[in-house]
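Quick one: structure tokens for this chain, please?
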Amino acid sequence: MFENSIVVAFSIERSFWTFGVMCSTLVLWIKFFD
């Protein structure tokens, strides 16, 4: 039970990281081509 919640929390954190990196890359591309 405890290990399972750790895995879930880690997956959520990783999704947020991926989402943040994608957003940052998008912003950088927009600034680069502006």
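The chain has one domain: 1-33.
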